[in-house]
C-alpha cells in the first residue's frame, strides 16, 4: 500500500529532482557506510593497541620480577658467607631488589584487570610473601650466627619459596600470554564479523541503489515508451488517441502537449477532409463522399424497398458559357443547378457534384419505372432560365439513368453506368438515356479491338478480298473492288462492319487505307509481271483520308516503287464522306487525279450532294448504292429513279456502276436502265486473291 503513495509522490516531482534525490540518497548510503567502516576500524585498532600495550607491560613487569628474583637469589648466597662485611653490603642490595620486585608487582597489578587474572596475581603475592618470610628467618639465623641452621633453611625453605614464586610468575606470564592470544583471537573474529557486516552493508547499498535506479529509470522510461507508442498511433492518423499523463513532471507536460497537438491536428485534418469532401463552389458533396453516402443509403434500405436509381446530370453548353460570358457566369449556372438539386433531394436521397458541370443523385424508388419519372421531374426542376448581369442564360441538362441492383451492386459501379448512359444521351442528343448493357459490351469490344487492330496491321492479320466488276456491254471483267477482311487469331473472320466504323472513329482507318493501297498496288504489279490482262482495282478511302494532304504524294511514291500504271488504281470515296468532310476535299481529289489515279463516288444517292457540287468533283465513276437496286424489278417508281440517276451520271460523262445486284431480275432492270458496269453477289462474292484468280481463269 505504501508503494502507490510513493509512486504518486515521485510522479509529482520533476525528473531532475528525482535524479538529484536518488543520487543524494546513494551518496548518503556510501558516506554512511564509509563512516561506519572508519569507526569500526578505529575501534578495532584501538583494541589491538590496548592488547599490545597490555601484553608489553605484563611482559616487562614479569621480566623485571624475574630479574629481581634472580638478583635476590644471588645475594642470598652472599649472606651465607662468613665474612660479615660481605653480608653487610648484601643486605641493602637485597632490600633494593625486593623494593624493585614490589614495584614490578604493583605495576603488574595495575595492568591486570580484575577477575581471574587478578586472582593469579594474588597467588604470586602469596608466593612472594612466603619467600620473604623464609628470607627473614634466614636473615635472623645468620644474625644469630647460626649459619648451620640458616643454610638448612636457605637450602630448603627459602629456595623452595623463591622457586615457587618464580614458577608462579612464569605461570602468570603464560596465563597472560594465553589471555592476550584469546583477546587477539576475539579481536580477529570481531574483524571478520565487521568485514562480513561491511560487505553485507555494501551489498545492501548496491541493492538499494539498483532498486532506486530501476525505480527512477522506470518512472522515466515507462512514460517515454507510452509517449512513443502514442506518437506512432497519432502518426498513423489515430488522432483520437490520448497519451496517459499521470505525472506532473516534464514527461507529463510532454504527454499533455502531444495530446493537445494530436487534438489540433485531428481537428485540422477533419476540417481538411470535410473541405476535400465538399465542393467549395456549390457546397455539395464531391465524388468520393457521394459514393460513401450512396453506399450507406443502399445498405440502410428496408428489405421490401431495395430498389434505387442513380441519375447522372450534366449541364450542357457549360464551356460555351464560360468561354463567352466568363467563369462567373458558368459558376452561377452551377450554383443554380446545385440549389435545385438540394431542394429536390434534401433528406430523401444522396446527391453531389462529380466534376465540372456533372452532378449525380441516388434515390430509392418503389418500382424501377419510377426512375424515368424521377429523371423527368429532375430535368424539369433543374432546367430554368437564369438571369446573370442582364444576360438570360438557358440551363439545359443531359441525364443518364442506372438501376440498382440490376445494373451494378454498389454506388461506384452504378455511377459509372449512369455516366455511360449520360454520354450516350449527349451523343444521341436525347434528354435522358437509360443504361444499356449491350451498348457497354459493344464499347468493351471496341476497346479490345483498338489495341488488337494495331497488332493486326503489324502482324499481317488483314486480308485483301476482291469482288469483280463486269462491263454490261461487252460482258468482260474490267476490274474488282478491293475489300478488307480481318482474320482475328481468337475471334476468327471479322466482317468490315465490325471494325471499319470503329477504325474510322478512332483514327486507325488511315493505317488500314495505307495497307489496302499497298496491297492493291502490289497485286497490280504481280498481275503485270505474270502477264495477266490489265484490270483495275478499286480501293475505298475514308473521310479522314481525303482530308490528308500528304495522301497524293504517298500514293505516287507507292506507284512509282512498283512501277504500276496509275490508271489501273481507282479510289472510291462515299458521297456521305464527301459531304461530312470538315475541309474541302476537292484539292486532295484534284491532286490524286493529277497523278492519273481514277476516282469514284461510292454509295451514291445516300448523301445530300447537289448536282452543282457533283460537277466540280474530278471523278470518273458513279457507283449507285444497292438500296436503289434491291428489288428494283418490282417497283416502277424505283426503276424511274434508277434510270434518272444513270442519266445524270452519264450526262456528266461518268461511268455508272450498279452495286448489290443479286438476281437476274435486278440485272435485267439495271441493264435496261443503261448502267455501264455491274457488281454484286449475282456475279461473284468477294474472294481472296488465289480464289479470284482461279475464278477469272474459269470464267474466261
Automatic annotation (TrEMBL):
Domain of life where this protein originates = Bacteria
Q: Where is the EAL domain?
A: 446-700
The HAMP domain is annotated at 218-270
- Gene3D superfamilies annotated for this entry? 3.30.70.270, 6.10.340.10, EAL domain
Which Pfam families does the record cross-reference, listed alphabetically? Answer: 4HB_MCP_1, EAL, GGDEF, HAMP
Q: Which CDD domains match?
A: EAL (cd01948), GGDEF (cd01949), HAMP (cd06225)
Per the database record, which ranges form the GGDEF domain?
A: 306-437
Family annotation (InterPro entries): Cyclic-di-GMP_PDE-like, EAL_dom, EAL_sf, GGDEF_dom, HAMP_dom, HlyB_4HB_MCP, Nucleotide_cyclase, Rev_trsase/Diguanyl_cyclase
Extent of the signal sequence: none
Protein name as catalogued? Diguanylate cyclase (GGDEF)-like protein
Which species is this UniProt entry from?
Pelomonas aquatica
Amino acid at each position: 500500500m505504501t508503494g502507490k503513495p510513493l509512486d504518486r509522490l515521485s510522479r509529482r516531482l520533476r525528473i531532475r529532482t528525482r535524479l538529484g534525490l536518488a543520487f543524494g540518497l546513494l551518496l548518503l548510503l556510501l558516506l554512511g557506510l564509509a563512516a561506519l567502516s572508519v569507526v569500526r576500524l578505529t575501534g578495532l585498532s584501538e583494541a589491538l593497541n590496548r592488547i599490545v600495550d597490555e601484553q608489553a607491560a605484563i611482559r616487562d613487569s614479569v621480566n623485571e620480577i624475574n630479574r629481581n628474583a634472580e638478583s635476590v637469589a644471588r645475594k642470598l648466597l652472599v649472606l651465607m658467607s662468613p665474612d660479615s662485611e660481605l653480608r653487610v653490603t648484601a643486605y641493602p642490595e637485597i632490600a633494593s631488589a625486593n623494593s624493585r620486585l614490589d614495584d614490578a608487582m604493583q605495576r603488574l597489578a595495575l595492568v591486570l584487570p580484575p577477575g581471574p587474572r587478578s586472582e593469579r596475581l594474588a597467588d604470586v603475592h602469596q608466593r612472594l610473601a612466603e619467600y620473604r618470610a623464609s628470607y627473614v628467618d634466614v636473615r635472623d639465623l645468620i644474625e644469630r650466627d647460626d649459619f648451620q641452621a640458616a643454610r638448612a633453611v636457605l637450602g630448603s625453605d627459602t629456595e623452595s619459596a623463591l622457586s615457587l614464586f618464580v614458577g608462579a610468575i612464569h605461570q602468570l606470564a603464560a596465563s597472560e600470554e594465553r589471555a592476550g592470544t584469546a583477546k587477539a583471537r576475539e579481536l580477529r573474529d570481531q574483524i571478520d564479523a565487521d568485514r562480513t557486516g561491511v560487505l553485507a552493508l555494501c551489498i545492501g547499498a548496491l541493492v538499494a541503489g539498483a532498486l532506486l535506479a530501476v525505480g527512477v529509470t522506470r518512472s522515466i522510461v515507462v512514460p517515454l515508451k507510452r509517449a512513443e507508442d502514442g506518437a506512432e498511433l497519432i502518426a498513423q492518423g489515430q488522432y483520437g488517441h490520448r497519451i496517459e499523463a499521470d505525472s506532473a513532471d516534464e514527461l507529463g507536460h510532454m504527454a499533455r502537449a502531444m495530446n493537445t497537438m494530436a487534438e489540433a491536428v485531428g481537428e485540422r485534418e477533419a476540417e481538411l477532409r470535410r473541405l476535400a469532401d465538399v465542393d467549395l463552389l456549390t457546397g455539395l458533396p464531391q465524388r468520393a463522399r457521394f459514393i460513401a453516402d450512396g453506399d450507406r443509403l443502399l445498405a440502410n434500405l428496408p428489405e421490401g424497398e431495395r430498389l434505387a436509381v442513380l441519375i447522372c446530370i450534366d449541364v450542357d453548353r457549360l464551356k460555351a458559357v464560360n468561354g463567352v460570358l466568363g467563369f462567373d457566369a458558368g459558376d452561377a449556372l452551377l450554383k443554380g443547378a446545385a440549389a435545385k438539386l438540394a431542394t429536390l433531394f434534401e433528406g430523401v436521397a444522396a446527391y453531389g457534384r462529380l466534376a465540372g458541370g456533372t452532378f449525380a443523385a441516388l434515390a430509392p424508388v418503389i418500382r424501377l419505372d419510377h426512375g424515368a419519372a424521377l429523371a423527368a421531374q429532375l430535368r424539369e426542376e433543374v432546367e430554368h432560365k437564369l438571369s446573370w448581369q442582364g444576360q438570360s442564360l438557358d440551363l439545359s441538362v443531359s441525364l443518364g439513368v442506372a438501376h440498382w441492383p440490376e445494373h451494378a451492386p454498389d454506388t461506384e459501379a452504378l455511377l459509372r453506368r449512369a455516366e455511360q448512359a449520360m454520354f450516350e444521351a449527349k451523343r444521341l442528343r436525347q434528354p435522358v438515356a437509360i443504361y444499356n448493357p449491350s451498348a457497354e459490351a459493344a464499347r468493351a469490344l471496341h476497346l479490345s479491338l483498338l489495341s488488337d487492330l494495331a497488332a493486326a496491321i503489324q502482324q499481317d492479320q488483314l486480308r485483301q478480298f476482291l469482288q469483280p466488276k463486269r462491263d454490261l456491254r461487252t460482258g468482260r471483267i474490267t476490274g474488282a473492288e478491293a475489300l478488307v477482311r480481318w482474320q482475328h487469331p481468337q475471334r476468327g473472320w471479322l466482317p468490315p462492319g465490325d471494325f471499319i466504323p470503329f477504325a474510322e472513329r478512332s483514327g486507325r482507318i488511315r493505317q488500314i487505307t495505307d495497307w489496302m493501297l499497298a496491297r492493291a498496288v502490289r497485286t497490280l504489279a504481280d498481275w503485270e509481271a505474270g502477264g495477266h490482262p490489265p484490270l483495275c482495282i478499286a480501293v475505298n478511302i475514308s473521310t479522314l483520308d481525303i482530308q490528308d494532304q500528304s495522301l497524293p504524294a504517298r500514293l505516287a511514291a507507292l506507284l512509282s516503287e512498283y512501277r504500276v500504271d496509275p490508271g489501273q488504281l481507282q479510289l472510291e470515296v462515299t458521297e456521305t464522306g464527301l459531304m461530312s468532310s470538315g475541309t474541302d476535299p476537292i484539292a486532295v481529289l484534284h491532286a490524286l487525279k493529277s497523278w492519273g489515279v481514277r476516282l469514284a463516288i461510292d454509295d451514291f444517292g445516300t448523301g445530300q450532294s447537289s448536282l452543282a457540287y457533283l460537277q466540280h468533283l474530278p471523278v470518273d465513276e458513279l457507283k449507285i448504292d444497292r438500296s436503289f437496286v434491291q428489288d428494283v424489278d418490282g417497283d416502277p417508281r424505283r426503276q424511274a429513279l434508277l434510270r434518272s440517276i444513270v442519266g445524270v451520271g452519264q450526262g456528266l460523262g461518268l461511268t455508272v456502276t450498279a452495286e448489290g445486284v443479286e438476281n437476274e431480275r435486278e440485272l435485267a432492270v439495271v441493264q435496261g436502265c443503261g448502267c455501264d458496269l455491274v457488281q454484286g453477289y449475282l456475279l461473284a462474292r468477294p474472294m481472296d486473291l488465289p480464289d479470284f484468280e482461279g475464278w477469272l481463269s474459269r470464267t474466261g
